[in-house]
Each structure stands twice: as C-alpha cells, then as structure tokens.
Write a structure and sequence with these properties.
This protein is of the alpha/beta class. The chain has a single domain, classed as Phosphoenolpyruvate-binding domains (TIM Barrel, Alpha-Beta Barrel), CATH 3.20.20. 43% of the residues lie in helices and 15% in strands. The protein contains 12 helices and 8 strands. Helix 3 links the parallel strand 2 (40-44) and strand 3. Helix 4 runs parallel beside helix 5 (100-110). The N and C termini lie far apart (53 Å).
Length: 249
C-alpha cells in the first residue's frame, strides 16, 4: 500500500486555496458533507469533543472522501502532537504559538527524524505502508495558530520556522489579547489581523484564517490560501431561507 495523499498539503504546496469545514463531531457528519467537495474536516479538540478515542473513526470517515483530517489540539505538547498523528490525523493545528521556540517545538513533535523527534510508531495512516517512517513527513501537515498580540509582535521570527504548512490567524482570541474581547471588528484588532496576514503572505509563507461567505473573497484577494469555515452559519442561512420561502418567517 501507498500512504494516502494529504489533499490540503498538496493544494497549498501548489499555491491553491484550500477549505476546511468545522462543526463536524461524528463520522456520519463527515459522510454527509463529504460529497460537497470540501478539502478538509476540522476536528475540534481544543474546545470540542474530538478526543484521541474519537479521532480514529473521524479520520477514517475523512479518508473515505479524500478529505484531510485536521485535528486541533489544546496544548503545544510534543507527545500530544504525535499521538494525534498516530491516531490517524493528517494535519495537526496547535494553538497560541507566540514565539519562534514554540513554533520549533511544534515541528519537533510533528516530524520524524531527521527533521524532528516525533516518536517512532506506524500510525493508523501507516498500516500496510512499509516505508511509512520514511515518507510520513511528506504527507503530514502542521498548522500554528497566530492568535495573540504577542504572536503579532514576534511574527517575523516565527515565520522563519520551516516545515509549518500554514500560519493561521484566529480573530477571537486575538481580540481578547488586545483587550477587546468579543469585538473582533474593532479597528485596532482588524488592523493587527490584516497586518499579520499581510506579513505572512509577503514572507512567502502560507496564511490561513477563519472565514465566512461575507469575507472570504477579501481574504483571497489578500493572498490567504487556507480557510476554516464553520458549518453552523450555512445551516442557519439555509434554514432561514427555507422558512422564508415557506411563509413562516
């Protein structure tokens, strides 16, 4: 057997836009959305229910549809990073990366030698793949969240760390770190978010961010290539339109 391709990693390497959908908590959710052609599923392990015991079944559902399984963990811990890969995730997203050293720690936990020091184990993705330990680095993705004002201040150094597939700017925590909790539209917050994205793009690295139908086109024009979008607003918009068409709203 050959290692399954990481769809998002390959698209980003080619300079293409990739879209991850969040809000999926069960393999049946992934099966339901799989035919829509989205690139990846966001498995929420920082604020949601995607713990290690669930990741195996969630990632198996992603594999069926050729979607990249993107697992967000809740701590920049090397053991947690590589255990998440061991359970079958193709990409791991690590929150609150504020320094170059913290970004380097992500790489050390997420890549096999000679790049990093990921613990040697043939993950679920590697079953039947005889050369998994030699080729896994080519099909695993690492995303780091830029979501604090400290990260903005240290961004030039953070961006020098290799083997990170996307530097992902997260708006809500960014606003909170600036003293504007719940107000991501504050002009100062928007200036720092846009400034972070522009710096990432101008450095030649891949920028990512949370996006909706209303703002994704603007981000694409800025050069952002990776998007996470929640499924909830799509369902809400569809439900509202249906009720309107039915004359009950």
């Amino acid at each position: 057997m050959e290692l399954r391709p990481n769809r998002i990693k390959r698209k980003l390497a080619n300079g293409e836009v990739a879209v991850i959908v969040s809000g999926l908590t069960h393999p049946d959710d992934i099966d339901a959305i799989g035919p829509l052609g989205l690139d990846g599923a966001w498995l929420e392990g920082e604020h949601g229910a995607s713990d290690p015991a669930e990741i195996g079944n969630l990632t198996r559902a992603c594999d069926i549809w050729g979607m990249t399984s993107v697992a967000r963990i809740n701590k920049n811990d090397q053991g947690m990073i590589y255990r998440t890969f061991d359970r079958g995730a193709q990409a791991v997203c690590v929150p609150h990366i504020n320094t170059k050293a913290e970004a380097e720690n992500v790489v050390q936990g997420g890549k096999f030698a000679p790049i990093g020091q990921r613990g040697l184990f043939t993950s679920r993705q590697g079953y039947g793949v005889d050369n998994y330990l030699q080729v896994a680095n080519d099909e695993t993705s690492l995303f780091v969240l830029i979501e604090d004002i400290a990260a903005y201040e240290n961004l030039d150094e953070i961006l020098t760390v290799d083997h990170i597939d996307s530097f992902f700017v997260a708006p809500s925590d960014f606003a909170a770190s600036m003293g504007h909790i719940g107000n991501i539209d504050h002009p100062d917050v928007q200036a720092k978010i846009n400034g972070s994205l522009e710096k990432i793009v101008n450095s030649g690295r891949t920028a990512g961010t949370l996006a909706t139908n209303d703002n994704v086109a603007r981000f694409v024009e800025m050069g952002v290539k990776l998007f996470m979008t929640p499924s909830g607003p799509w369902m809400a918009a569809g439900a509202a339109q249906f009720q309107k068409n039915a004359g009950i709203a």
